[in-house]
Amino acid sequence: MPQLLTGKTALVTGGSRGIGRAVAERLASEGAAVALTYNASRAGADEAVAAIEQAGGSAFALQADLSDAGAVPDLFSRLDRELVERTGSTSLDVLVNNAGNSGWGGLADSTPESWDTMFAVQARAPFFVVQSALSRLADGGRVVNVSSAAGARPMQSVPVYSMAKAGINNLTRALAMELGPRGVTVNAVAPGWVRTDMNTAVRENADLVASIEADTALGRFGDVSDIAAVVAFLASDEGRWVTGQVIEASGGYQL
């Protein structure tokens, strides 16, 4: 079967573990040269790059603390150097804004500091990552933002996270209009319950697991590969006529 992204370059933020790693591995398996960012997990990033290379793909990792607004220009300076060395150009074909952070505060226990940190990574960083990518992003390129089902159906227990993801959904539609004249598509993928480190505590509660699975049309938690498959479709030419959409990939949760 032909690879869908042969000759393309991709940047996946937060690509050292979880959904981001699965996305990086899937895009690389489709032929893209993948740059992935990590914050603290250098070992995880190295493992992701090694797994991609062992499978015959091409990847490299760049450290970036996206809670720091000043990290974005520096990230792209280093990305430029790596891409020129590897491909001879700074051109970027696919951008996946996936980086996230934990600290799901509720109404009673959130602080201005925790609110700012959540929005810095979940909402501010994608905006300025796209801004920095504009001069590198090829016409006909792809932007995929990883949102959450909570962006459309807010969760009472995590109002700040839900607000931030709603902002990503709105940004996705605005960017689709902004970049459409260049043939660039911009979409968001909104996972439901997926087996990641973020919800380990939930998955250790048998009653909660049973309730979630009973409320999901396909009857199970998602796997990171389920989300990566949707991102890969949107990143490829197969998704060329889809833009400005928030695609929920939840297995039919709470239908």
Automatic annotation (TrEMBL):
Belongs to the short-chain dehydrogenases/reductases (SDR) family. GO terms for molecular function: oxidoreductase activity. Keywords: Oxidoreductase. Residues 8-193 form the Ketoreductase domain. PANTHER family: OXIDOREDUCTASE, SHORT-CHAIN DEHYDROGENASE/REDUCTASE FAMILY (AFU_ORTHOLOGUE AFUA_5G02870), SHORT-CHAIN DEHYDROGENASE_REDUCTASE FAMILY PROTEIN. It comes from Promicromonospora thailandica. This is NAD(P)-dependent dehydrogenase, short-chain alcohol dehydrogenase family.
